[in-house]
């Protein structure tokens, strides 16, 4: 028998709150919204120690689940085969935000060792547009962020190739910074045309002296410092779009809101 002011006994079975389809965490107790990182190897590697994806997990801890969907070696042409699987039009709540980070492979040069990955720049832009339009069909409120390909350090790529293949290393560069810049320009142009944000990593990294070895581990992929630049710019872009981590609700009450003698009140 309960006395006045007493706390009822904790239930023997606790059922977690259920988030209705499409809910995005408007109040405590709802399932966390998702942020999806969609891209090539630079995205696939983003959950490694010091990675920009792992840093996003920390930034949005208990506010959103950050899901990596990175595919090493993929270009935008091949990415089109994935979008209906990763972003179905029905049956699952759409992401709160999605980053699209392709172009490093699309920009591989014809007639060189990586030409299988090459996508003409006009097709690259059109493929990005198809991905963005599909995401808009999934949700008219999703924050969609384009990220340009990073700059390329040709000498760094050559050193890496020699370390891997010795005398059998390629004789001509399979990527150049100039060509990566052409693709970055098309990514930026598309973002303007579709009125969505774009993180211009190609230009941002080159603002720093010695970016070639500071930000790139093999002339293309990112060092921890390079990952930090991507993380900083992505977070800034998400914040500008209204996704400020400090203003987003926790999925369940903060521990300071739980009464030790009557915890159930915090979960009502």
UniProtKB/TrEMBL annotation:
**Keyword check for Transmembrane:** no
- InterPro entries reported in the protein's UniProt record: GDSL (IPR001087), Iah1-like (IPR045136), SGNH_hydro_sf (IPR036514)
Q: Which Gene3D superfamilies match?
A: SGNH hydrolase (3.40.50.1110)
The record's GO molecular-function terms, alphabetically, read: hydrolase activity
Q: Which CDD domains match?
A: Isoamyl_acetate_hydrolase_like (cd01838)
Question: Domain of life, per the record?
Answer: Eukaryota
Q: Keyword annotations for this protein? A: Hydrolase
Q: Does the keyword Hydrolase apply?
A: yes
Please give the family membership noted in the entry. Belongs to the 'GDSL' lipolytic enzyme family.
Q: What is this protein called?
A: GDSL esterase/lipase
- Annotated source species: Urochloa decumbens
């Amino acid at each position: 028998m309960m006395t006045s002011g007493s706390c009822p006994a904790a239930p023997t079975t606790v059922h977690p709150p259920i988030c209705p389809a499409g809910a995005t965490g408007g109040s405590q107790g709802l399932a966390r919204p998702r942020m999806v990182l969609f891209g090539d190897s630079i995205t696939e590697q983003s959950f490694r120690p010091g990675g920009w994806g792992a840093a996003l997990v920390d930034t949005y801890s208990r506010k959103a689940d950050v899901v990596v969907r990175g595919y090493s070696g993929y270009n935008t042409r091949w990415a089109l085969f994935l979008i209906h699987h990763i972003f179905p039009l029905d049956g699952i709540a759409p992401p709160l935000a999605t980053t699209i980070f392709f172009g490093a492979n699309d920009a591989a040069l014809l007639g060189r060792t990586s030409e299988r990955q090459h996508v003409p720049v006009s097709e690259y832009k059109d493929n990005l547009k198809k991905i963005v339009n599909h995401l808009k069909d999934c949700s008219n409120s999703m924050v969609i962020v384009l990220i340009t390909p990073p700059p390329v350090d040709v000498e760094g790529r050559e050193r890496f190739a020699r370390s891997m293949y010795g005398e059998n290393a390629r004789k001509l560069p399979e990527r150049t910074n100039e060509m990566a810049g052409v693709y970055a320009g098309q990514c930026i142009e598309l973002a303007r045309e579709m009125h969505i944000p774009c993180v211009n990593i190609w230009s941002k990294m080159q603002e720093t002296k010695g970016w070639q070895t500071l930000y790139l581990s093999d002339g293309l992929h990112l060092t921890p410092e390079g990952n930090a630049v991507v993380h900083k710019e992505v977070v800034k872009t998400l914040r500008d779009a209204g996704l400020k981590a400090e203003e987003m609700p926790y999925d369940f009450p903060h521990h300071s809101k739980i009464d030790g003698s009557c915890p159930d009140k915090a979960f009502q």
